[in-house]
Amino acid sequence: MDPLRILDVDGRLLGPSPLPPEEIRRLFAVLLTVRAYDHKASALQRQGRLATYAQFEGQEAAQVGSAAALRPDDWMVATYRDAAAMWMQGYPWDNLLLGRMGDERGGAPPAGVNVLPPSITVGAHMIHAVGLGWAEQMRGTDRIAITYFGDGATSEGDFHEAMNFAGVYRTPTVFVCQNNGWAISMSRDRQTASETIAQKGIAYGIPGTLVDGNDLLAVFAATRDAVARARRGEGATLIEALTQRMGPHTTADDAGRYREERSLEDWRRRDPLDRVRRHLQASGSWSEDWEHEVVTAAAAEIEAAVGRAEDLAPFGAGAAFDRMFARPTAVLEAQRAELLGEGKAGS
Ligand SMILES: Cc1ncc(C[n+]2csc(CCOP(=O)(O)OP(=O)(O)O)c2C)c(N)n1
Ligand SMILES: [Mg+2]
């Protein structure tokens, strides 16, 4: 099965563009912005200012192209690697950074932002997206829920539960699998014997689409169609975006131990940003000065968010307990008291 592709590696259109030129230019600026964040966050981790960070370099088009097809009030439930998609849907850099600083407040986005905190537990969050979509269906709105996950997450039971429920109840859910070839050191070949992940939808009565995940326009077109289906009440879609993470699994990983550096050469040629840049250059709507301006503005915006996150007054030691349940259980109360030195363990 050939993946859907609209923009080739040289930036030439292989078919009609699903977006007008101005919108492609705007989304290129978004691609530059999210890459600037990814590089900044990696640098902050190296300086000891963030805990472990999961880079998404190489996967920008998969995230930006899909998130660009959403309405601001749609729901998003994503993972530790999806900062780009989350930011596009309104989750501030501040919150993403706070989360990586181990500050609970990162998990509480501003009111009106329909994005759940990132799931660190692999695969556990797709059922939440199905539930959110189902709730919107019951309320009679046309809001949809999108969920992002990796190739590795498709081996979790939760993936199958989510797909099964979405199929039976025709929930307005868009499943976006960023197949980046790896689940830490577990390669795609050992993850599943199916030819594609997209075809897993068939068993659940959900259409699956295979798409070149490094092609902004193809990812956008596939997601736009899936979102439209969901809004019309026709149910869920599974999108498999073929991509590659160019960095390690996280800043705590050494990918050189299991992945040949040479295997990345082809992917480097397919860089999602270069492709769009070439397209803009060919139509005369790109200049070095403009790109420099965009990157400088993005860097300033991100730097300001880092400043705000680092300047926030420290969070009280017991706060993690307050956010677990509306009314803490007795066990949690005891643990909190122990932490704060108000009681003795086990008493
Ligand atoms: C339930 C669970 N099992 C194991 C882990 C450890 N772990 C973190 S990320 C990861 C790999 C996930 O791979 P994939 O779903 O392909 O996403 P990617 O990291 O490639 O974006 C694993 C095994 C975890 N966080 N949660
Ligand atoms: Mg993966």
Q: Which structural class fits the helix and strand makeup?
A: alpha/beta
CATH superfamily of the largest domain: Thiamin diphosphate (ThDP)-binding fold, Pyr/PP domains
* Strands, count: 7
**Gap from first CA to last CA:** 63 Å
Described by its quaternary structure, the protein is single chain
Helix content: 40-55%
- Let me know the largest β-sheet: 5 strands, parallel
Mean pLDDT: 96
Q: Say what the CATH topology of the largest domain is.
A: Rossmann fold
Shape: globular
Can you name the CATH architecture of the largest domain? 3-Layer(aba) Sandwich
The first-level CATH class name of the largest domain: Alpha Beta
Order of helices and strands: HHEHHHEHEEEHEHEHHHHH
User: What ions, cofactors and ligands are bound?
Assistant: thiamine diphosphate, magnesium ion
Number of helices: 13
Radius of gyration: 21 Å
- Percentage of residues in strands: 5-15%
Q: Order of strands across the widest beta sheet?
A: 1-2-3-7-6
Please, how many domains? Answer: 2
Unreliable stretches, pLDDT < 50, 5 or more residues? Answer: none
Describe the overall structure.
This protein is α/β, with parallel strands linked by helices. It has 2 domains: 21-314, 3-Layer(aba) Sandwich (Rossmann fold), CATH 3.40.50.970; 316-347, no CATH class. Helix content is 43%, strand content 9%. It has helices at 21-46, 60-67, 83-88, 93-100, 126-139, 157-169, 188-191, 216-231, 265-269, 272-282, 288-311, 319-322, 330-339, and strands at 75-77, 145-150, 173-179, 182-183, 186-187, 208-212, 237-242. α5 (126-139) packs parallel to α6 (157-169). Bound molecules: thiamine diphosphate (TPP) and magnesium ion. Thiamine diphosphate is lined by residues 81, 120-122, 149-153, 180, 182-184, 249. Thiamine diphosphate binds at residues 81, 120-122, 149-153, 180, 182-184, 249.
